[in-house]
Protein: Right handed beta helix domain-containing protein
Organism: Adhaeretor mobilis
Amino acid sequence: MNQPPSSASRFRLLMGSLLVLSLSCPSAWGQGSSPRNATTPGEVTTPYPTLHQLAVEWEIDGDDNLNGVVTTQYRAVGETTWREAMPLSRVAAKKRYFEHEKVPHAWKNKHSGSLFHLEPDTQYEIKLTLNDPDGGTAEKVVTARTRPVPGPAPNALQRKVTPETIGTAKPGEILLLAAGNYGEFHAPRDGEPGKPIVYRSEKGDAVFKTILLVNRKHVHLDGLTIKNEDKHGKGVNLVGAVDCVVQHCKVNAMYAICAPVPPGATSCYIADNIVEGTTPWTAESMGAHGDNIGEGIQLTGPGNVICYNRVTGYRDCISTMEGRIADQSCIDIYNNDIYTGADDGIEADFCHHNCRIMRNRMTNCFVALSSQPGLGGPNYFIRNVAYNITHAAFKLKRDSVGDVVIHNTVIKLGTGLGGNSPMEHAYFRNNLCIGGPVGDNQWGGYGGGAPAAADIRSPGERSSFDYDAVGVYKEPFWAKIDGKPFAEVEPHGIQIDMSVFNKVEFPYPPLPGRPAPDLRPRAASAVVDAGVRLPNINDDYLGDAPDIGAYEAGRDLPHYGPRLRGEN
């Protein structure tokens, strides 16, 4: 392999590759017409802010040859120094029809991207600089504010209630629920902005069969227990909910926390919950046609934050739902601890743009991360960890468009870095993926792919791969992308093996299930300082350059799953 260049050279290489990366195909020109290659800049929007991320979209006209570039800087209002972020991605307008749908999924001609790791409830300035060699230079500065961490109103009135008096809530109150069985509860009224209605059980002994927050606004569930043993029972129904919260709850139901049909939920906060289903980790349960059932957290709709939950024993543990016309954008899914996803650990299907799946840990899953498909993008998969995966780490299918896959760590059976379906305009950097033996077994009628380090078969001409580390356990090294040798496609990629970790066992056989290991790299292992700088993603790296994979050697592990009260 080539010697890695300096950090400064890596940054220039990154910027160059990002600037030419388009996240959709060129628009079709009418017969006899000429392309409109110059850019006419339009409106800049910052839709659906979340606690720690901001999306930026700059609509344009023209640029049919897709060579316009928007560089991005940001700073908190009052600061004097601008900080670099990744350039916005170039997304060309397109329509996609799917089976049984009469209305297309459509997206506009634009530049789009996210700012990461921001402070809650903080106003930011964002400077965007557009350059198109065919004409259309422009600069815009916009401001946007992140959402605050949701909580009760300051000096909220606290009032004790029982199953008989729970329906008397008023905006701004905290209702302290006495122990008891509350059955099926339909929240009777909305809170107000800054004055939510909070239903709280400090000991978790207020037990419900199901809670309906259908079309409710500004209602919080805090510390409740929901148990629904019906075959298709729902725990918390959030269809039509806006700015609602489900936090520190224990939910046992086939469909635990859900808003699976349009309009879904909007700007809701699902955090620190323990969500448990009944699907086991067996060969028969795995796959799309396996003997599995249930959805842990299943929300369609924009602006939702799903974080710090522990979800176990479902067909899909966390899902954005699929195949329905809904605005699935600006969704954050992070720091969740996921076990036994018999089909998908996280199913981020039919996401339009700026969905951010980050720092999740998935163990004992058929598929770790699904984008089937991404609809234009960019949609981000960053610093996720996947161990004991039997089919696919990244399920980018149905001509997925605009997936940004960076800094993930994968240990799985079969192919480590794999993709057997066409994808468009994917961007892979700094991923650590190791495959290995599969034996003669299949799970749910599917295998894990041939034992290989990498096999990306149809990436499309505008996809970009580099700085990944791949290996295969106890099998000859074999790695190709688009039928070409890995080293040819990834000049800064490296070959690795399990020795990059501290005594981690390869998960073969995958049954029974395994606990999540510590997948931080050993100091001085091959992946340390071997990555490329990605501004606003890995600025805090140690050493000469970022490490490849989800973790930086020498750093503490992230917190996965529920936090204690007061830690958010």
Notes: Confidence is low (pLDDT under 50) at residues 1-33.
